[in-house]
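User: Can you predict the 3D structure for this chain?
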Amino acid sequence: LEESSRQLITAAPVMQKLIKTLDRVATSEVPVLLTGESGSGKELLARRVHDKSIRAQQPFVALNCAAIPQGLIESELFGHLKGSFTGALKDRKGKFEQADGGTLFLDEIGELPIDQQPKLLRALQLGEIEPVGGQTRSVDVRVVAATNLDLEEQIGKGTFREDLYYRLAVIPLKVPPLRQRPEDIPLLAGHFLRRAAQER
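Assistant: Here is the predicted structure, written as structure tokens:
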């Protein structure tokens, strides 16, 4: 990836095929689920979906579901009103409202607590969110989610809702790890070498 232009650098046929598919589905409004190992480039591909969509001039907002303390995930997603809980010192917009009109990237979606999954499902189904302590409001958000977990396995364990999975995985795409696309290693090595040379 060239950071200034966010152009994906790849010579691997498997990645070129994936990018062509991404560019086709980017023009639709349906959710996309990217699966693959950590470090395989899922966020870069999510940004490409946004950049190639009709929402490209609107916000791209990212949330890592694994990085938020469990008690704060609802506020992070949907926002809260001042005084709605201890520590809520002012009104705060959640990621859905921040991304209104644009794209919300939910990374590590498999780590979303099971008690928060129905609220996310409602937001996807109805385009409505309810801030903590607030009233229901409408949002216009396209969701791209990513995970390094096997969500079908998580469904079997009872830690991920099947209905949410099918709502997120309208377009499921698997991102291959670097070891399955060795053609990209020289390109990436050159990119990181150039970047290090500029810094040094």
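Helices lie at 13-26, 42-51, 73-78, 95-98, 117-126, 151-157, 162-168, 184-199. The chain is about 35% helix and 15% strand.
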